[in-house]
Structure formats: C-alpha cells, structure tokens
Write a structure and sequence with these properties.
The protein has about 30 residues and is mainly α. It has helices at about 1-10, 15-25. About 65% of the residues lie in helices and about 0% in strands. It is flat.
Length: about 30
C-alpha cells in the first residue's frame, strides 16, 4: 500500500482528516 501512503503524505491536514474520517467512520474529525 505504498501508493496510499504517498497520497496520504501529500494531502493537506484538512484532506488528511477527511481521509482518516472516511477510513474510520466511527470517528469524527469535525471542527
């Protein structure tokens, strides 16, 4: 999954939070 890691590292903090929230639906990353 090196491709996902690269994309994850290239995302901004906001997009990263949304990405994590999408992977972990039982967690909320809302301001």
């Amino acid at each position: 999954m090196l491709t996902i890691k690269t994309v994850f590292e290239e995302t901004t903090e906001v997009n990263r939070s949304k990405f994590i929230a999408h992977l972990v639906p039982h967690h909320r990353f809302e301001a």
